Amino acid sequence: MDTPVIDQARLEAFVGRAIADLTTGYTGVMVSLGAKLGLYKAMAGAGPMSAKEVAQRAGCAERYVREWLNAQAAGGYLAYHPRSDTYELPPEHAMVLADDESPVYVPPAWEVPAAMWADEPKAVDAFRTGRGVAWGEHDARLACGVAAFYRNGYRAALVPQWLPALDGVVEQLRNGIAVADVGCGHGHSTLLMSQAFPNSRFYGFDTHAESLAQAQHNAVVAGVAERTRYAVARATDYPDERYGLICFFDTLHDLGDPVAAARHAAEVLAPGGTVLLVEPYAADKVEDNLNPVGQLYYAGSSLICCAHAISEGGKLVLGAQAGPKRLADVFRKAGFSHFRQVAQTAFNLVFEVRR
């Protein structure tokens, strides 16, 4: 075999890219610490601050905080002012790092790669044997991180944008219908709808009992527990309540048999009912997904989405980058005739599905 000719410039460029990605991993730890220790909140809206002032506000040791501040300034997360030896959190950055109600709040998302690292031995075994890894078998940080990452995005879009994009559904919700949230996790999506439409009844289903316990707690805290119920059930056997709306929020691609799940939805859907399908943003062709969002989703899909689908039998393992055509085909095989994209964000595609 001939020795390949190395393009030195190309090598150096790729080494730089690899080091930048490694730095990103380190930065994620700093971001998670900054959120959990209240360092970002201590700086939000306060203008330039010394390391001592930040440490005092957050109740942390100054020497650790100074090093953290320098790491954040080096990464462009904070501004550093050399003359005054102070650090500042710009208001735009505060929306991403300090405001846990912001739709662009990021820190909890770092719990996901932390869980992926913790689960690396399971991933190695899964890759070598072809076995699946169920959602509940992952490190506990996975469920919390995913729930927190999607919560604010759903809060910003679900009630004000996605539901109104569905033909006639908002009026039905106001009048009162049964709603199923399949694969509800911590129930943030269920809760948002329940708060907005008090005349309707909401049912959240998931196979992960620990997530459902948190969902029930969230419903009690929000004061909607009387009209919001949660139960352990699979996407193919939750009870029939003649649902006017059935929702799959970033769930369908995780299922071992999405066609069977869609078929069950058709069986328990009320006449004139609607399926709301929210899936990760993706184009139909691999080459059109070779971008940062695709990189994130393909990586997560390798260790989480595909692994869970395989654990459920893996009749059709869609993965997180299924794309509209494959998703439409799932519902066509299940007997649905209407499949329409009604919205999209940087991270999601939203579809209206009817029989």
UniProtKB/TrEMBL annotation:
Keyword field contains Plastid: no
GO biological process: methylation
Coiled-coil intervals, chain numbering: none
Gene Ontology molecular function terms on file: methyltransferase activity
Assigned keywords, A-Z: Methyltransferase, Transferase
EC identifiers of the protein: 2.1.-.-
Gene3D superfamilies attached to this UniProt entry: Vaccinia Virus protein VP39 (3.40.50.150), Winged helix-like DNA-binding domain superfamily/Winged helix DNA-binding domain (1.10.10.10)
Domain Methyltransferase: 175-291
All copies of domain S-adenosylmethionine-dependent methyltransferase Rv2258c-like winged HTH, residue ranges: 27-98
Alphabetized Pfam families for the sequence: Methyltransf_31, WHD_Rv2258c
Protein name: Class I SAM-dependent methyltransferase
Taxonomy of the source species: Bacteria, Pseudomonadati, Pseudomonadota, Betaproteobacteria, Burkholderiales
